[in-house]
Amino acid sequence: MKKIENLKALICTAKYLTKYEPILNTNNLDIYAYEALSKFELSRNSLSTEDIFRELHKNNQLFYYLEKRNKRLQVDNFTEEKTLFLNFDADIFVTDEQKEYWKNFLKPIKNKIVVEITENGSDDETSAQTIHEFSKWLNYNYINTALDDYAQDGTMFSFKLMNESKYVKIDKSFLREIRKNKNFFYYLEGFVKTMRLNGKKTIIEGVETLDDLQIAKDVNSDYVQGYLFKTQIIEK
Fold first, then answer.
1. Which helix (H) or strand (E) holds 197?
2. pLDDT digits over 60-116, tens only?
3. Which CATH superfamily is domain 21-36+82-235 in?
4. How far apart are CA 172 and CA 116, in angstroms?
5. What is the mean predicted confidence (pLDDT) over 198-211?
6. pLDDT digits (tens, 9 = 90+) for 132-144
7. Which long-range contacts (CB under 8 A, 24 or more apart) does 76-82 make?
8. Residues 6 or more apart from 135 whose CB is under 8 A from it?
9. For the chain, what are the domain ranges?
10. For residue 226, which of 161, 162, 177, 171 has the smallest C-alpha distance?
């Protein structure tokens, strides 16, 4: 209990940053959308934003409280006339109270957003079912979704989730593997082509160099995202 209380105090007092990372059209590099990312500025060098979210999976109510605050800030501070990608973990969409809150939050802005379905900490059958139910609810309410982190180590592959998503975000690990083994280029090329044939849009993440960008162009990915491109940061 002490650990949870310390975590609650930490997330309530730490400086919170919203980063808006651009998603660009691969061919002409026009900005298509932005992804809102959460980050805490912490004095403890040993504790990262990822550490905090990992611990929050053990406390559903605290996780829900934090994400209500985060998502409201991400939406309210976004001033661009572009689509906004919001990361959502299905674990905060489990109780009746949570479902009602997110319904009232998401439906009025559904034409301006895409919900990225993440799998942070979701690695068992119960969590997988929660993700599927969340995806089903989003589709029922005509809210566009993106399957996040495709090919990242430890993530769940699901044709159901892929079929329900408008976008598939290809993890940066793909580009890393291509740097080590050029034959993986053909795997990526084939996957992008398969997604296009099935009406999906692909976004290659982790584009950090001009070589990465060229790979994205060569495989004909729809969009790119990564540190090669300027990110907007808002402090709160």
1. helix 184-197
2. 888 898 889 889 999 999 999 999 999 998 889 989 999 999 999 999 999 999 999
3. EAL domain (3.20.20.450)
4. 16
5. 96
6. 899 999 999 999 9
7. 77/18, 77/234, 77/236, 78/20, 78/34, 78/36, 80/20, 80/31, 80/34, 82/31, 82/32, 82/33, 82/34
8. 90, 117, 145, 160, 161, 164, 165
9. 21-36+82-235
10. 171
